[in-house]
Design brief:
By secondary structure, this protein is mainly β. It has 2 helices and 10 strands. Strands 1, 4, 5, 7 and 8 form a 5-stranded mixed beta sheet that branches. A 3-stranded antiparallel beta sheet has the order 2-3-6. The radius of gyration is 18 Å and the shape is elongated. It starts with a helix and ends with a strand. This is Lipoprotein.
Length: 139
Protein backbone atom coordinates (compact mmCIF):
# COMPACT_ATOMS: atom_id res chain seq x y z
CA UNK A 1 0.00 0.00 0.00
CA UNK A 2 2.84 2.40 0.82
CA UNK A 3 4.42 1.77 -2.57
CA UNK A 4 1.14 2.58 -4.28
CA UNK A 5 0.80 5.83 -2.34
CA UNK A 6 4.41 6.74 -3.13
CA UNK A 7 3.79 6.09 -6.82
CA UNK A 8 0.63 8.23 -6.80
CA UNK A 9 2.53 11.01 -5.07
CA UNK A 10 5.31 10.96 -7.69
CA UNK A 11 2.76 11.03 -10.51
CA UNK A 12 1.11 14.10 -8.98
CA UNK A 13 3.78 16.52 -10.19
CA UNK A 14 3.10 19.15 -12.82
CA UNK A 15 5.16 21.37 -15.04
CA UNK A 16 4.68 24.23 -17.46
CA UNK A 17 7.02 25.84 -19.91
CA UNK A 18 7.40 28.45 -22.58
CA UNK A 19 4.01 30.02 -23.02
CA UNK A 20 2.23 32.18 -20.51
CA UNK A 21 0.70 35.57 -19.82
CA UNK A 22 3.29 38.34 -20.09
CA UNK A 23 3.05 40.91 -17.29
CA UNK A 24 5.04 44.08 -16.61
CA UNK A 25 4.79 46.62 -13.80
CA UNK A 26 3.28 49.76 -15.40
CA UNK A 27 4.99 52.09 -12.89
CA UNK A 28 8.39 50.54 -13.62
CA UNK A 29 7.76 50.82 -17.37
CA UNK A 30 6.77 54.50 -17.00
CA UNK A 31 9.86 55.38 -14.95
CA UNK A 32 12.23 53.33 -17.13
CA UNK A 33 15.59 54.95 -17.90
CA UNK A 34 18.47 54.02 -20.20
CA UNK A 35 20.39 51.03 -18.87
CA UNK A 36 17.68 49.90 -16.44
CA UNK A 37 16.82 46.23 -16.11
CA UNK A 38 13.26 45.30 -17.07
CA UNK A 39 11.50 42.73 -14.92
CA UNK A 40 8.80 40.74 -16.71
CA UNK A 41 6.59 38.15 -15.05
CA UNK A 42 5.26 35.21 -17.04
CA UNK A 43 2.20 33.52 -15.51
CA UNK A 44 2.65 29.92 -16.60
CA UNK A 45 -0.40 28.52 -14.85
CA UNK A 46 -3.24 30.18 -12.98
CA UNK A 47 -4.65 28.85 -9.75
CA UNK A 48 -2.35 26.05 -8.69
CA UNK A 49 -3.18 24.74 -5.23
CA UNK A 50 -1.67 26.67 -2.35
CA UNK A 51 -0.71 23.22 -1.03
CA UNK A 52 1.69 22.68 -3.94
CA UNK A 53 5.22 21.87 -2.83
CA UNK A 54 8.65 22.29 -4.35
CA UNK A 55 7.48 25.12 -6.56
CA UNK A 56 10.30 26.11 -8.90
CA UNK A 57 10.45 28.57 -11.76
CA UNK A 58 13.17 29.79 -14.09
CA UNK A 59 13.50 32.08 -17.07
CA UNK A 60 16.06 32.43 -19.82
CA UNK A 61 16.09 35.73 -21.68
CA UNK A 62 17.43 36.50 -25.14
CA UNK A 63 17.37 39.88 -26.86
CA UNK A 64 17.61 40.20 -30.62
CA UNK A 65 17.32 43.86 -31.62
CA UNK A 66 13.84 44.97 -30.59
CA UNK A 67 12.61 41.41 -29.87
CA UNK A 68 12.83 39.97 -26.37
CA UNK A 69 12.29 36.21 -26.07
CA UNK A 70 11.44 34.67 -22.71
CA UNK A 71 11.83 30.93 -22.12
CA UNK A 72 9.94 30.61 -18.83
CA UNK A 73 9.56 27.28 -17.05
CA UNK A 74 7.97 26.08 -13.86
CA UNK A 75 7.24 22.91 -11.93
CA UNK A 76 5.65 21.83 -8.67
CA UNK A 77 4.38 18.81 -6.81
CA UNK A 78 0.66 18.78 -6.19
CA UNK A 79 -0.47 18.53 -2.58
CA UNK A 80 -1.08 15.15 -1.02
CA UNK A 81 -4.81 14.40 -1.52
CA UNK A 82 -4.85 12.46 1.76
CA UNK A 83 -3.84 15.49 3.84
CA UNK A 84 -6.12 18.44 4.59
CA UNK A 85 -5.44 21.57 2.60
CA UNK A 86 -6.94 25.05 2.52
CA UNK A 87 -8.26 25.51 -1.01
CA UNK A 88 -6.62 28.73 -2.14
CA UNK A 89 -5.16 29.56 -5.54
CA UNK A 90 -1.70 30.75 -6.40
CA UNK A 91 -0.19 31.53 -9.79
CA UNK A 92 2.84 29.69 -11.09
CA UNK A 93 4.85 32.74 -12.16
CA UNK A 94 8.40 32.98 -13.52
CA UNK A 95 10.34 36.21 -13.06
CA UNK A 96 12.41 37.21 -16.08
CA UNK A 97 14.98 40.01 -15.86
CA UNK A 98 16.07 41.67 -19.08
CA UNK A 99 19.32 43.51 -18.31
CA UNK A 100 20.59 46.87 -19.52
CA UNK A 101 17.99 47.90 -22.10
CA UNK A 102 18.03 51.18 -24.00
CA UNK A 103 14.72 53.06 -24.37
CA UNK A 104 12.69 51.92 -27.35
CA UNK A 105 9.79 49.84 -28.58
CA UNK A 106 10.06 46.11 -27.93
CA UNK A 107 8.12 42.98 -28.80
CA UNK A 108 8.21 40.65 -25.82
CA UNK A 109 7.55 36.97 -26.66
CA UNK A 110 6.76 34.04 -24.37
CA UNK A 111 5.87 31.06 -26.55
CA UNK A 112 3.10 32.17 -28.93
CA UNK A 113 2.14 35.11 -26.72
CA UNK A 114 3.49 38.58 -27.49
CA UNK A 115 3.07 42.12 -26.23
CA UNK A 116 4.51 45.36 -27.57
CA UNK A 117 6.01 47.63 -24.94
CA UNK A 118 7.38 51.16 -25.30
CA UNK A 119 10.08 52.10 -22.77
CA UNK A 120 9.61 54.45 -21.10
CA UNK A 121 5.86 53.91 -21.27
CA UNK A 122 3.83 57.06 -21.95
CA UNK A 123 0.35 55.64 -22.51
CA UNK A 124 -1.83 52.65 -21.79
CA UNK A 125 -0.14 49.26 -21.47
CA UNK A 126 -2.35 46.42 -22.67
CA UNK A 127 -1.85 43.27 -20.64
CA UNK A 128 -3.73 39.99 -20.24
CA UNK A 129 -6.59 40.17 -17.73
CA UNK A 130 -4.53 37.97 -15.39
CA UNK A 131 -2.07 40.89 -15.14
CA UNK A 132 -4.62 43.62 -14.54
CA UNK A 133 -5.96 44.30 -18.07
CA UNK A 134 -5.30 47.83 -19.41
CA UNK A 135 -3.33 50.16 -17.19
CA UNK A 136 -2.98 53.84 -18.12
CA UNK A 137 0.38 55.30 -17.15
CA UNK A 138 -0.20 58.64 -18.89
CA UNK A 139 0.96 61.70 -16.88
Amino acid sequence: MRRLLALLFVLASACAEGEGHICVDPAAAASFEEGDDLTVHVILESCISSCARRVRTSCEVSVDGDSIHLDARGSYIKGNPLQPCIQLCADLTAECVVPDLPPGTYEIHAGDNMITLVLPATGPIRLASECGSVVDVSP
